[in-house]
Structure formats: structure tokens, C-alpha cells
Amino acid sequence: xxxxxxxxxxxxxxxxxxxxxxxxxxxxxxxxxxxxxxxxxxxxxxxxxxxxxxxxxxxxxxxxxxxxxxxxxxxxxxxxxxxxxxxxxxxxxxxxxxxxxxxxxxxxxxxxxxxxxxxxxxxxxxxxxxxxxxxxxxxxxxxxxxxxxxxxxxxxxxxxxxxxxxxxxxxxxxxxxxxxxxxxxxxxxxxxxxxxxxxxxxxxxxxxxxxxxxxxxxxxxxxxxxxxxxxxxxxxxxxxxxxxxxxxxxxxxxxxxxxxxxxxxxxxxxxxxxxxxxxxxxxxxxxxxxxxxxxxxxxxxxxxxxxxxxxxxxxxxxxxxxxxxxxxxxxxxxxxxxxxxxxxxxxxxxxxxxxxxxxxxxxxxxxxxxxxxxxxxxxxxxxxxxxxxxxxxxxxxxxxxxxxxxxxxxxxxxxxxxxxxxxxxxxxxxxxxxxxxxxxxxxxxxxxxxxxxxxxxxxxxxxxxxxxxxxxxxxxxxxxxxxxxxxxxxxxxxxxxxxxxxxxxxxxxxxxxxxxxxxxxxxxxxxxxxxxxxxxxxxxxxxxxxxxxxxxxxxxxxxxxxxxxxxxxxxxxxxxxxxxxxxxxxxxxxxxxxxxxxxxxxxxxxxxxxxxxxxxxxxxxxxxxxxxxxxxxxxxxxxxxxxxxxxxxxxxxxxxxxxxxxxxxxxxxxxxxxxxxxxxxxxxxxxxx
Length: 689
Known about the structure:
Elements: H1 6-13, H2 16-24, H3 31-57, H4 68-83, H5 87-110, H6 117-127, H7 129-164, E1 170-173, H8 198-207, E2 226-229, E3 232-234, H9 236-269, H10 273-283, H11 292-320, H12 324-362, H13 371-378, H14 380-399, H15 407-437, H16 458-494, H17 498-503, E4 506-508, H18 510-527, H19 534-555, E5 557-559, H20 566-593, H21 613-618, H22 623-632, H23 635-688
Helix pairs in contact: 6-7, 7-9, 7-18, 7-19, 7-20, 8-13, 9-20, 12-14, 12-15, 14-15, 14-16, 15-18, 15-20, 16-18, 16-19, 18-19, 18-20
């Protein structure tokens, strides 16, 4: 008779997973090493089980995966064990439990303080997680802009206001400009004097000129070199520059932190087509939906996703079977369409450049009697940029149909082009302004280094352009909601005309709305250096937009027939937002390090560029600290630091590849376990027969 352990071992050798492992090893291993490996794996599993049991014993009874009767017995045994402990250990355990309970209660109460918690949950219940992700993203931008406003206001605006009004025995220190011609220090803001009509105030409010130009909203207000509060000297130029670096670093770190989780979900979701199919079939339903219409739309969206997957598989098969003539025809057509796209983008960029130059040269040459024309001329760049942002995506959506891409790639490419046209328009506007500021024809820039006649305080002028873009974008969003969405809804509901019914309710396109607010956020990041209170305006703007979009969604729009998953949409939103932030680094870096600062206004009047305040401050440090800082900025430190970073990067890449292989092995193991189960079921069925 065989030993009791031999028969199970022979039986386990017949499992599909064991046979696959034997084939993977090449079949050269003998049975005994396999048995040792099996015993070793059983020992490792036993050790892991004991460790997990020990961790579970330390948890409260209610967290154990047991029925209520066993939980009560576990609780009684834990209380009996507690009675045998010393007073010190009893006090520590009681204190730990009380602290955990207090923290959980505080966390539960703090959840009620989350901004728009009830509104976002109701939107999620009616329209699903895809649209909910847009409103959550909008809430994130409100909080981000509010924190940026608190940061800039605390370190830049508040010390300036305190010093100008003499609060806390504070005084202002002015340093006379050195080696600067007097003509460069003349700056006379166009403030309103005498009798002023109401429409003049309205024009100033829309354009940022007049009474707003001399307020703390713009760069020219902060013409202070230092603030003395009692005996403490506050270096305002250094604080101004460091606050700029701080809000950019804060935005970057916060966006990266939020995007990591979305990247993990996106990586897992796109890893395997079969897994994506299983997710749609078995886990695709959104259980947050309570509205019948939203449920019906979710059914249609799941059906559309499955149809899209099948269509993509057919297209992949069709692509694989294409002949050389078909490939040549499609590639030629794509090249031709991309040439058209480049021509459209070039036309938009050239129009923005010419309009900006015209606006800057003629906005101050029109009499006050024609204030409406003056306001229109000042807003010409904003109008042209808005038209380009509206017309460009429509043309791109029409042209993409002829390029014969898969549906998923069509969406990504269209969105990529829309992102580029929106963000690049801002860059072209700034380039046009810099070309005017640095236009040194006929020795215009010789005394000051910039066009001081047209731009005595060029930073405030750039801030006014960013302010006008922000205000005009807000006006357009409100106008579209009031004069397009609501009249269209009324016509659809009360007019039986076939043409009106064919148009129907407009869909709530998540991607278009996200690009809309990311465009405004990029303007805010760029403009905060030139207009320190612009984050406060952005906070109020997004706060109002939340309620406007909510009303528009509930009363005038319907969810898109081609929705995007919440996890992938959150990651996409943050990636596009990160692109906007990286774009903001370029104009800010050029403005701080390359363009000469204004000599007639601002905290950097006594520096050639804004960056020079950093080395000037370092020169005031002790000699030893100066050597350390300048050594860190030298090539002798930069080259080894770069080499170390490369080594760390290679290590992280190798680690990621190793993790990827482990994930693939675990997936194979899951497949083999399912085969083992089928094998065992078949054996049991045969034994029963």
C-alpha cells in the first residue's frame, strides 16, 4: 500500500499548472527537486499565513472576516487577554483605541465640510461617474486657485498694503535707481481724474485700465524695494519671485500626486484587451446611477463601447490585410490633411499676431469719445483667440473622418489638436507682446533695454492682456449658456419642426468643457506673475462656472452618447492640465530671466532682470554659505548630480520592468489556477460517476 503523501503528490503532478511549469523549465528537472520546490512553496505559504493570522489577531473583532458569533467569541477572548496586561499596557491600548475613534469621528465630520459634496454626489447619481469627474476636476481647480491666492496674497500683497498704510509701525524703503536714465523711470498710469461717467468705470473694469491699473491687481502697484516691520526687513522683490516659484511648484506637485493614481488605473485598464472586455461585461455598470434616463444612457454607452471594440478589431484586421497601394493612398491622404491642419494653425497664429500688434499700437490712439471702439480694439486679441478656439476644433473633427483611424485614436488625435490650438494661441499672444516690447527699431530700446515709450511698465500691460483673456473667457461661457443652450432647449421642447427636432438637445461633451477650463487655468498660471490677484478672480470664476454648468447640465443638456470612463478621464484631465502648466513655465521663464524688467514700476526696478534678485541676495550671505550655493550652481556639482540622477532613473526603469514581468507571471498564474479548477471539477465528476 502506498504512503498517504504519495498519492496526493502524484495527483498534483497531473495539474495543468504543474505541467506548464515543467514545460517552462524544459522538462530537465527530476521529480525530487520539484517535490522540494513544492514543499518549499508550501512552507512559504504557511509562514505567510501565520504572519497574516498574527496581524489579524491584533485588529478589533469587528474587522475579522467572520460571522457574528465568532466575532463575539473573539471579542471576549481579547477582553480576557486585556485583563492580564499591566496597567501601562492597558493605558496604552485604551489610549490608542480612543485616539483612533476620535480620528475616525473627525474624519467623518470633515467629509461634510468638503466643497460641493452633496451637489457632486447628486450629479454622479443622475449622470454617472464620467460627468461627475468633470465637476470634481472643477472643484480641484477652485481649491488650487484659492491656495495660490492665499500664498501670493500673504507674501506679496499683504506686506505691501501693511507698509503703505503704516500698520504695525511699518515703513517703506525705496532705493534710488543706479545707472538708469530718467526717461526710463517715467510711468503715469491712465487713472481717471475729474468727472467720470459710469460707462468709463465699466470699460476700466473690463479692460483692466483706468482705476484698476493703479490697484494691487497689477504688477505696477508693487513698486517697493523693502518693507520694515518694527526692526525686521522684508525683502519684497525676493518674496515676489519666490512666491512665483512656490505656486508653480505647488501646482506641479499637486497635479503629479493626483495623476499617479489615475495612471495606475489607466495602465491596468489598457494592459490587456481581453481584460478590458471582461471589465465592460462583468464590471461595467455604474451602480451610482439612480435616474432611469441616465440608466438607459448607460446601457447605450456600454453597447456603444462593445461595438467600438468590435469595430476596432475589424479595423486592425483590415489594416493588417491592406495592400501596398491602399497604404500609399491612405498615407498620402493623411499627409495632405495634416498639411491642411498645419495651414489652419498657421493662419490662426498669424491672425493672432497681427491683431495683437494692431491692438497694442492703436488702443491708446483713439479719443475717449469713442470709448466703445477703444474697448473693442483692446479686446481684439481675445476675440480672435476665442474664435480660433471655437472654429479650429470643428474643422479638426470634420477632417479626422477622412484619415481612416480607429475610433479611439480619432478621439485622442482630435483632442490633442484641440489642446495644441488652445494652448499655442496663448503662446502666440505672448510672443506678439514680447516682439512689441523688445522692438528696438530706430533705437527705441537703447536707453532702457525695451520699448519704454509704448510700454513704460510692460509687466502691467501683459497682466492686463491676461486679465482680459480671463474676463472674456468667462463672458463667453455665460453667453453660450444664456443665449444658445437655453433657447435651443426651449425650441426643442415647444417646436415640432423636423429640423429643430433633428438637432435635438446638445450633448454635454466632457472633453470640450475640460479644455475650456484648462485654457483658463493656463492663463491664470501665466498671468499671476504680472497680476498677483488673478488667482482670486479665477477662484470666483470657477465657483460661478460650477453652478452655471450644473444648471446647464440638468436643464438643457444630455450626457454624451460616447462617454469616457471616469478613471481614464481623470488621468486625461490631469495630463492636459500638466501640459498647460509646463507651457506656462516657458513664458514665465523668459520674462524672469531674459526680458529686462521695467525701470519705472514694480519691485525689480533696480535689477536688469527679475532673476538678478537671487544672486544679489546670495551675495549678502556669509562667505562660507555663498561658496556652498555657488558651488551647487557650478558645473562641478551639476555633472555628478546629473550622473546620479541617470543612475537612479535606470534603476527605476529596471525595477518597473521587473514589476511588469511579475505582473505578467501573476496573470499567467491566475489563468493556470482557473484551469486547475476545471481539471479538479472534471476529476471529481469522474470519481462520482
